[in-house]
From TrEMBL:
Pfam short name (any one): CoaE
Protein name listed in UniProt: Dephospho-CoA kinase
GO CC annotations on file: cytoplasm
UniProt keyword annotation of Cytoplasm present: yes
Species annotation: Gracilinema caldarium
Gene: coaE
Matching SUPFAM superfamilies: P-loop containing nucleoside triphosphate hydrolases
Matching NCBIfam families: dephospho-CoA kinase (TIGR00152)
Lineage, uppermost ranks: Bacteria, Pseudomonadati, Spirochaetota, Spirochaetia, Spirochaetales
Family from the record: Belongs to the CoaE family.
Length: 213
């Protein structure tokens, strides 16, 4: 299927720093009629569909009481263990790629769709992206968001920030146009103005790419 033709939609990549607020940007795209695939949620589905293979490799200790994959337990098991992580990815990624392609096919009548993924460069559709929206926010803002959302120790959060930093450069090395979007997450009297500026930025990107309203 050729993206951006009568046979398929233009593909937009949406990614960003850890807790930079890319999911909020996803809601702005959806409000503009662009379906957004949440690859994190799709990954959860892929885990369940590959449960037999995963428990065969990592044991049944990673299951919850109701027989589902305990993602936190599995993540803790493979974190910092390159071979275990590679084994897990070899099981899950092919399934996730199949689900991604099926989702795009379901939306082939749309002018554009967006792929929302923390590790966008690993997606099967990465080479086909027309443009990439890279969401950024300040370190303090991201730390506050991460602490509130994930409730992890500061050291663990900083380790996640560092591990993700190495991927950013890859988004400027391909053929896709890459746009940086700042989601500062300000509060109080400036919040409405900031949201307005963020929406204007998204609208401008879509217009530049020929997929605006």
């Amino acid at each position: 299927m050729a993206p951006g033709t009568e046979q398929g939609p233009v593909l937009i990549g949406l990614t960003g720093q850890y807790c930079a607020g890319k999911n909020y940007v996803a809601t702005l795209l959806e409000a503009r009629g662009i379906p957004v695939l949440d690859v994190d949620k799709l990954g959860h589905l892929a885990l369940e569909q590959e449960k037999t293979a995963i428990t065969g490799r990592f044991g049944t200790g990673i299951l919850t009481a109701d027989g589902r994959i305990d993602r936190k337990a599995l993540g803790s098991l493979v974190f910092g263990k390159p071979q275990d992580l590679a084994d897990l990815e070899a099981i899950v990624h092919p399934r996730a790629n199949q689900l991604t392609e099926a989702w795009i096919l379901q939306h082939r009548d749309k002018k554009a769709v967006a792929i929302n993924a923390a590790l966008l460069h690993r997606s099967v559709v990465f080479p086909q992206l027309r443009c990439i929206i890279l969401v950024q926010a300040g370190l303090v803002t991201r730390l506050i968001r991460a602490k509130k959302r994930d409730k992890l120790p500061l050291f663990a959060l900083l380790k996640r920030f560092k591990s993700q930093h190495q991927f950013t450069a890859q988004y400027f090395q391909g053929n896709a146009d890459t746009y940086i979007v700042k989601n500062r997450g300000v509060l109080g009297i400036c919040a409405r103005w900031h949201r307005h500026q963020l929406e204007r930025r998204i609208d401008a990107i879509l217009q530049w790419e020929g997929i605006g309203r």
